[in-house]
Amino acid sequence: MTQDKKLLVSAIKNGTVIDHIEAGNALKIIRLLNLPAHKKIVTVGLNLPSRAMKHKDIIKVEGKEITEEEMNQIAILAPKASINIICDFEITKKFKAKLPKQIAHVLVCPNPNCITNQERMDSLFHVIQNGTIKLKCHYCEKIFSQEEIKNYNT
Amino acid sequence: MNFQGKSIISINDISKAEILHILKHAENLKKKQQPNLLKSHIMGSCFFEPSTRTRLSFETAMERLGGQVMGFSDGKVTSAKKGETIYDAMKIIGQYADVIAMRHPVEGAARRASEATNKPILNGGDGSNQHPTQTLLDLFTIKECQKKLAGLSIALVGDLKYGRTTHSLAQALAHFGAKIYFVAPDILQMPDHICKELKDKKIKYTKHKKIEDVINKVDILYMTRIQAERFSDPMDYERVKNAFILTEDMLEKVKPNMKVMHPLPRVNEIDTKVDKTKHAYYFEQAENGLYVRQALLGLVLGKLK
Q1: How many whole angstroms separate alpha carbon B30 and alpha carbon B114?
Q2: A32, B46, B48, B79: which has the fewest Cβ within 10 Å?
């Protein structure tokens, strides 16, 4: 069990490991996926050393399989994330989060005069992938870079 | 092409073929009115913020087609003041009216309204976002006075940063291969995202600081107002304001077919002496709003095909 000693976040028997999250985003993802509500064990590693990313976050969810659709909706926060589904300590499925064409609910439109910030309703963004990623609000039609989106509906 | 039941929210939702179809019907209505076309139809005229030309031309358009109008011209008289959402308000008005023309100060309000009702919404302006009927009447006017839309040289002058009219017009002109000149002080130049969109569509555009740099080359000089409030330092405004005022003497060497347009209201950016010249076309432009809105009402109510 020498490998276990190297693990900074303990291994899980059944569930999901979301790895290679950009450092600083794990807590937002936990809130967006509403993980505390499932009453399952969630372990989090923040700012772990990573060869590829220098620092990364990691989330391990015991007893819950996170679907590709769920992951895709939050892919904007974790574009490099790899998701491992664990069954009896073995990886049974592995996938990457893919940016969907539309992102509903998750993002808060930075335009204060957008209807989504004035009334109780879901936001909706169209993802424009043209070299860089841009997000166009379905309602106010303003286009934002990822960095301009500061708030998330958690 | 079927417009029945369709909302007109953003110029970006309308294809080139659809634009030309709307303009064709507007042209027909300008030639020959159809006073009974929309008999027994009711338009909800929902203006949550003040408007004169847009509201009155929508209402006149409906009435001259034989339809009726109900509504309000000030959001303060509605339940919006009590905190009612746009969604609820428009759902209810949609149960009374066959079509709704609306203006609202919040961006995206018209799109939201179109989700609340299955009756067509005609967006008469949502904050600084879209004003598609203005863009369509601008295109109609350009086509009318130049006899074509393709391959024209067009200067957009004034506040290009905040002006929704010039944004939508630039985007729509991209369908027709125009050469566009943006004439504005640096701080009010056309936003990068619109320029990038034009570039992607291989539309030629250049940026300028003075009307004189481009006026003799263009077929259309589209003027807009520069508001002093946009400048943080009033001195900056004083320095640039005269470069964006059109006077009669500037028209000496322009192309004979050149027309001056303006979405109105103007303040001082077009000297009144220009009104009498053969180049002034802004009053005709305002009149054309009537025919374009008539065409849209007829189309979305399924009475024009």
Answers
A1: 29
A2: B79
Nearest to B107 among A111, A119, A120 (CB): A111
Please say whether the dihedral angle defined by the alpha carbons of residues B282, B283, B287 and B293, taken in this order, is positive or negative.
positive
Q: Sign of the C-alpha dihedral, residues B179, B148, B249, B186?
A: negative
Q: Are B69 and B122 in contact (CB under 8 A)?
A: no
pLDDT digits (tens, 9 = 90+) for B191-246: 988 898 899 899 999 999 999 999 999 999 999 998 877 788 888 888 888 789 99
- Catalytic residue among B54, B117, B135, B165, which? B54
pTM, full prediction = 0.89
Q: What is the value of ipTM here, to two decimals? A: 0.90
Secondary structure of B39-66 in the HEC alphabet? Answer: CCCEEEEEECCCCCHHHHHHHHHHHHCC
Best mutation site among B106, B162, B194 for testing chain A: the one with the most A CBs within 10 Å? B106
Residue B289 vs residues A99, B176, B274: alpha-carbon distances, Å = 42, 21, 21
Q: Catalytic annotation on B82? A: yes
Active-site residue B54, yes or no? Answer: yes
The answer to whether A116 contacts B108, with C-beta atoms less than 8 Å apart, is yes
- Element housing B144 (H / E): helix B132-146
**Token pair in block for residue A4:** 């276990």
